[in-house]
Design a protein that fits this description.
Elements (H helix, E strand, L loop, with lengths): L1 H5 L4 H8 L3 H11 L25 H17 L7 H10 L8 H10 L21 H4 L5 E11 L5 E9 L5 E6 L4 H15 L4 E4 L3 H4 L10 H8 L3 E4 L9 H15 L7 H18 L1 H6 L21 E7 L5 E4 L2 E4 L8 E7 L4 E7 L9 E6 L8 H10 L1
Parallel strand pairs: 1-4, 4-5, 5-6
Antiparallel strand pairs: 1-2, 2-3, 6-9, 7-8, 9-10, 10-11
Helix pairs in contact: 2-3, 4-5, 5-6, 11-12
């Protein structure tokens, strides 16, 4: 535009040629002046004055920086933050002392901050420790028990809750007492109605896992899952995040059902819970429909606890300072180079092998194999021994 104006074209003709207003042509022509075009700064400039009216004077910024160095090196207390600098400016009687927040912005703008900013990395995908679940190829149901509820002038109550990770399919079973047999029957009832997920996750309660005082004990809940082709997964103890979905639903259930109404009896609580679960499923119908497909529950299935379990059991654990983990009542050495880190232990009952995979929240897609150990469940001497172990679980 400027070049055409200098060649003698009118500003109106140049504006019409480039499809801009006359003021635009005049502004850039004035910006260029009589200088060569390759020596003109063509970058856009912000509107308004070059220097803001409320900008802290340069002398005050330099004083703030010098006071910081002085307080850091010579003061008895050693405090050199924004509050300390502001107090020192007031003590010296400086005119127009900036506020504490302004002093902090000066320090930040001039790079005079000692602390390191926290690097916030994106959260890993849901179910990141299970590749099929993270990729959306398989669904995972999580189950947990809410304890410590007492109906006024009535019995104590325990509630078994369940929620799927991708679809948000929920379930709830208030009972007087939740035992391993209760969990087993509720899982069969739920999966018979909605289909089988790829995985079922639990915490390390004995009702889910089996007795902890007996090595190699496989409880009834694990056996039912394996018999149906569902892989049981056990979250690591005292680790946040792995049970977040079901724990969040536990809080919702207690807020929307338990604390919201007065319950005269267990039957009244069961009815309130049933209505809430129905409404919740209706509200999440679109999400449930988009979840990974479930397998059809086998019609001719029969629960045979005495049969030897087959399939895979997964334990998420954190290694000790020596690189070992504990599962199934035993200690297993994982790797000397993987200390205090998360691992996924896949207990393959068919090939009698435990495989340990490294887990990193920072890099959830990388899960290299750390070690393989031969492991086989001991064969029971009789079916009576198996039934006793199941009863103890």
């Amino acid at each position: 535009m400027v070049e055409l104006v200098r060649k003698g074209y009118s500003i109106r003709a140049v504006a019409r040629k480039f499809g801009v207003g006359r003021q635009t042509v005049e502004r850039w022509t004035e910006r260029a002046g009589k200088r060569r075009l390759d020596q003109v700064d063509w970058s856009d400039r912000k509107r308004g004055p070059h220097k803001p009216a409320n900008k802290t004077p340069d002398q005050m910024e330099e004083l703030v920086l010098s006071l910081r160095r002085e307080l850091r090196e010579d003061s008895d207390l050693g405090e050199c933050g924004a509050a300390a600098i502001h107090a020192e400016l007031l003590a010296r009687g400086c005119a127009e002392v900036p506020g504490i927040r302004t002093v902090a912005r000066i320090l930040e703008r001039r790079g005079a901050i000692d602390r390191r900013w926290r690097v916030r990395r994106p959260a890993p995908p849901r179910g990141w420790y299970l590749p099929e679940v993270a990729a959306g190829k398989a669904e995972m149901d999580s189950f947990d028990v809410v304890e410590g509820l007492v109906i006024k002038a009535g019995p104590e109550v325990e509630v078994l809750n369940g929620k799927s990770l991708h679809g948000g399919l929920v379930a709830s079973w208030p009972r007087n007492q939740v035992l391993a047999e209760t969990v087993m029957n509720c899982l069969v009832e739920h999966w018979r109605q909605f289909g089988l997920p790829g995985y079922a996750q639990f915490d390390n309660d004995t009702r889910f896992q089996g007795p902890h005082n007996y090595p190699n004990a496989v409880g009834r809940v694990i056996r039912v899952c394996l018999c149906l082709g569902v892989i049981p997964v056990f979250a690591p103890p005292r680790e946040p995040g792995f049970q977040a979905a079901i724990e969040n639903f536990n809080g919702q259930w207690q807020t929307k059902v338990w604390a919201r109404f007065h319950h005269d009896s267990l039957a009244d609580l069961v009815e309130r819970s049933r209505r809430y679960i129905t409404a919740y499923r209706l509200h999440a119908a679109a999400r449930i429909a988009e979840a990974p497909p479930r397998q059809v529950f086998p019609q001719a299935w029969k629960n045979r606890l005495t049969q030897a379990p087959r399939g895979t059991i997964i334990f998420i654990r954190r290694t000790t300072e020596t690189g070992a983990i504990r599962l199934l009542g035993q200690n297993f050495q994982v790797a000397d180079s993987w200390l205090g880190r998360l691992v996924r232990a896949e207990v393959g009952l068919d090939d009698e092998t435990i495989r340990f995979y490294a887990l990193r929240r920072r890099d959830p897609a990388s899960q290299p194999l750390l070690n393989e150990i031969h492991y086989a469940l001991p064969k029971p001497r009789s079916s009576k021994w198996t039934l006793i172990a199941d009863i103890l679980s």
